[in-house]
Amino acid sequence: MTSPDPVPAPARSAPDHFRVALPAPLDVPASLAFLGKWGDDLLDRWDGTHLVRTVNSGGRAIPFVGVSAGTVAEPALDVTTEHAADPPAGVRRAAGA
To answer: Is the pTM value of this prediction over 0.90?
Structure first.
């Protein structure tokens, strides 16, 4: 008896990276510190450097990782998300753009 071919995994696209400039002055780690204060709530994760969360875009949950970048005088968040020709507006809003 032969088993059927396994269902192929969905194609994954390359991640998309972009930088979101934030209004100055802003201490990004201090501003997000409250997210890590009580531990991981499985919604917003902040370890002092990386913000991990999802946003809703067109009824689809889009995961992203934001890494604090820049300085207080020129703050930014480096964002990685699934590849998209135009990163979802929800990701940019959640990242502060």
So the answer is: no
